[in-house]
Amino acid sequence: MTFHQICAQVFPFALRALACAVVSLPAWAVDPFTVRDIRVEGLQRIEAGTVFASLPLRVGDRYTDDKGAAAIRSLFALGLFKDVRLETQGDVLVVVVQERPSVASVEFIGLKEFDKEVLIKSLKDVGLSEGRPFDKALADKAEQELKRQYISRSLYGAEVVSTATPIDRNRVNLTFTITEGGPAKITQMDIVGNQAFSDAALRDQFNLDTGGWMSWYTKSDRYSRTKLNADLEALRSFYLSQGFLEFRIDSTQVAMSPNKQDMAITINITEGERFVISGVKLEGNYLDRDDEFKALVKIAVGKPYNAETVAETTKAFTDYFGKFGFAFARVEAKPQIDRRNNRVQFVLQAEPSRRAYVRRIQVAGNDRTRDEVIRREFRQLEAAWYDSDKIRLSRDRVDRLGFFTQVNVETVEVPGAPDQVDLLFTVAEKPTGSISLGAGFSSAEKVTLSFGIRQENAFGSGNYLAVEVNTSKYNRNLVLSTTDPYFTRNGISRTVDVFQRTTRPYLGDVNAYSLINSGAGLRFGVPVTETDTVFMGVNAEQTEIRSGTGLPDAYLEYAQKFGATSSALPLTLGWSRDGRDSALVPTRGSLQRVNADVSVGGDVRYLRASYQFQQYFPLTKKYTLAFNTDLGWGQGLKGQQYPLFKNFYVGGLGSVRGFEQSTLGPTRPTSSTNLAPIYLGGSKKVVFNAEFITPFPGAGNDRTLRLFGFTDIGRAFGENENISLGDLRASAGVGLSWISPMGPLRFSYATPIRQQTGDKIQRLQFQIGTSF
Questions:
Q1: Which of 12-21, 442-451, 608-617 is least confident?
Q2: Is the pTM of this model over 0.85?
Q3: Residues 624 and 766 placed together within one structural domain of the fold
Q4: What is the pLDDT of residues 456-469, one digit of tens each?
Q5: At what angle do helices 225-241 and 307-323 cross, to 10 degrees?
Q6: Containing domain of residue 236, as a range?
Q7: pLDDT exceeds cutoff 60 at 18
Q8: Is residue 470 part of a domain?
Q9: Residues 737 and 712 in one domain
Q10: Do 207 and 259 sit in the same domain of this protein?
Q11: CB–CB of 657/733 below 8 Å?
């Protein structure tokens, strides 16, 4: 290729003649020569070594036109230059370059829908970022990427215009001016071909809809191809679970209005006939355990075909093969269809293939959490036989740590080793800490400050650390708590608590009485099984009663018996079992807790026990029925009365809603005749709750925002009172549960349906915390 041919490829036509004439004068009329030196001119930011490394010529090489053409192509291929020329000065080769400008800054005008950092990252993926070379083609590519980002959020009318402003040192400031416009909303959604089910029943399977009064929150009326594909799969799964074996989606049309604001979706389906299961047969190699595999069959003979039970059966079979080390077992459910009678028989064909063991377990995605925090939860070990039960248990234990939004396990074959596999645990970390800062002002307390920090995965170690400080005049707290879940190698946890709590009544009197409770505790958790843990520990506590205005008679009597300052040394023994599918949004499973404190030293001796049981029943995909039982009992030991400071309290959120917090129990008079009796709880409590949980109207299947109806029953009873069903209070109402960025929020509105004279009613209540 001659130099003139190179020029024809490299330079625009308007500049080609002049440029080629200038650079091809005497230099290109000479014969090939030996290069004595190479010099580079025109560099500003790029190192000369970058140019020399890309040249196919070196000092001492023989220069030819072909090598010159190759040199120009190599330098243009770097993407760093907008012009490259070769000149000769005797036997010296001069490389003259003109650098592409670099991006000094990237700014956005009119940005509302996205955070700037999100778009900066997306531009990096297409090669545009600060410090990188810039040209018009890259700007056009960046514009298209930004439009793609807006389309992903249904903003089809978004317009993006880029402006490059040159500045010193061959740099440019890049500005994207964005006109976002409004989102494209679904105004019409039609399903054509359905006969067995109504349009409304089928649209209930979708997350997309034509909008409602909650669309501002769910954005369910914003069209998204990804969401539509997910909805189509949900529609297919619904039909296949109802017996329609040959259901198919024929076509999907999406029409957009000229203004790119309205979308119409039409889905054409063919339902086919509904089939009934006529039988299930097992064929293949079942390791001489046919009866054990038959017990795993979920497919119900005589019932309509259900794709979910077929999938559950094949998965149960492959998992059971995996229990014996057969990581590559194949199980295929082959239907034998009788269209005349609309019946289908399934043949479960199994081939266990070969047995394998795990060579290596790898962990990915844990940028912050240490490897050992994850690996100590593994029950499948390296160099051991592949065991699907242990792998599944390992995954569940890692997930239950609460440090990750997602935990996946992938089995990877080892090339050249048919009897080995590698396991890849991929996790997606989530923030596990929270900081709370607060300040308040009132006429009674003036300025109060509060501070709290909680870290469930402190420094990536898996340890729990919490600090709470409150400077309120009436409720002053200082609490420090830390938990090491692997205090020993075999999983025994250790928790250390140090606290001081000061409580004063809201009497507006600087001489009012106060209670000061301080102490420290040490507790260990011993895992008995994979789901059961036994807790044991010891606390050292001191309670001081500082006399003053409004001191209850009960506190006065207590101080006369045990002194104004009393101590206790309670031992703790507890047990828990958590089988719920989620700690924040449970839909199935149960939770049980038993705890007992026995004071064996100090001034006061007592026994305090509590029991909690929760059960969740999934009625359908959307609806859940939940029950909660919370019981407590306390008794003084060695002839002493039960200490008032260990009383149980009932009333309000967390127990019986609709009544003021902690007011359902016996009352005690005060030393002042001007003050009303106060509530000090009781040594016994009984609480029952029932909730019917449903998605919030208009929010689709969003589990983070739910509505619930409830009924609560309960009361606290004094040491000398018998538990009487006639004294229990009851309420009913509705509530809202929202998993917000600041934590679980619960609002409730309750009406007492069983109350007595003097009860304090509080219909509307609010809580930050877990359910019940």
A1: 12-21
A2: no
A3: yes
A4: 788 888 888 888 87
A5: 90
A6: 185-270
A7: no
A8: no
A9: yes
A10: yes
A11: yes
Pairing of strands 417-429, 404-414: antiparallel
Compare 685 and 63 and report the one with higher pLDDT. 685
Same domain, 629 and 744: yes
Give the 3-state secondary structure of residue 546.
Answer: strand
Residue with structure tokens 């064909």? 349
192 contacts 266 by C-beta, under 8 angstroms:
yes
Report the Cα 292 to chain-centroid distance in Å. Answer: 37
Length of the chain: 772
**Torsion angle of alpha carbons 185, 191, 196, 197, nearest 10°?**
10
| pLDDT tens figures, 271-294 | 999 999 999 999 999 999 999 999
Instruction: Give the per-residue pLDDT at 676.
Output: 62
C-alpha span between 484 and 337 (Å, rounded):
58
Tokens at 300, concatenated: 């119900």
Question: Based on the structure, what is the number of domains in the chain?
Answer: 6
Query: Domain check: are 264 and 323 in the same one?
Result: no
Check if the beta carbon of residue 560 is closer than 8 Å to that of residue 606: no
Task: Count CA atoms within 13 Å of residue 378 on its CB side.
Answer: 21
**Same domain for 705 and 664:** yes
CA distances from residue 307 to 196, 246, 271, 598 in whole angstroms, order as listed: 17, 11, 15, 54
Number of neighbours of residue 405 by Cβ within 10 angstroms: 10
Q: pLDDT of 518-527, one tens digit each? A: 999 999 999 9
State the Cα–Cα distance between residues 278 and 196, nearest whole angstrom. Answer: 22
Q: Are both 137 and 226 inside the same structural domain?
A: no
Residue 583: predicted pLDDT: 67
3-state secondary structure of 567: strand
Which structure tokens are listed for 284? 């293949």
- Contact criterion met (CB below 8 Å) for 596 and 574: yes
Residue 442 has pLDDT above 50, yes or no: no
Q: What is the mean pLDDT of the chain?
A: 85
Residue 16's SS3 state is helix
Cα Rg, the chain, nearest whole Å: 37
Whether 123 and 143 have beta carbons less than 8 Å apart is answered as no
Residue 430 class from Cβ within 10 Å (0-12 exposed, 13-18 middle, 19+ buried)?
exposed
- The more confident residue out of 465 and 700 is 465
Query: Could you tell me which residues come within 8 angstroms of residue 212 by beta carbon, excluding any fewer than 6 positions away?
Result: 220, 221, 697, 698
Give the 3-state secondary structure percentages of the chain, helix then strand then coil, rounded to 5.
20, 45, 35
Q: What value, to the nearest 5°, has the Cα angle with vertex 207 and ends 203 and 208?
A: 75
Write down the residue that tokens 């009851």 correspond to: 730
Could you tell me which residue, 10 or 700, shows the higher pLDDT? Answer: 700
Measured between alpha carbons, how far is 191 from 233 in angstroms, rounded to an integer? 14
- DSSP string computed for 145-214: HHHHHHHTTT-TT-EEEEEEEEETTTEEEEEEEEE--PPPEEEEEEEES--SS-HHHHHTT-S--S--TT
Query: Does 530 reside within a domain?
Result: no
Q: Which two tokens stand for residue 318?
A: 């492959």
HSE of 92, CA atoms in CB hemisphere, 13 A: 7
What CATH number is given to the structural domain containing 95? 3.10.20.310
N-to-C CA span, the chain: 82
- DSSP label at residue 644: G
Nearest Cα to 99, choosing from 117, 76, 128, 73?
76
- Looking at residue 758, what is its pLDDT? 84
Task: Give the closest residue to 424 by CA, choosing from 450, 398, 457, 461.
Answer: 398
Q: Could you write out the DSSP letters of every residue in 459-509?
A: GGSS-EEEEEEEE-SSEEEEEEEEEETTSSTT--EEEEEEEEEEE--S-S-
Same structural domain for residues 94 and 106? no
Residues 6+ apart with CB under 8 A from 511: 548, 549
86: left (phi over 0), alpha (psi -120 to 50) or beta: beta
In a domain? residue 516: no
pLDDT given for residue 155 in this prediction: 87
Of 195 and 132, more confident? 195
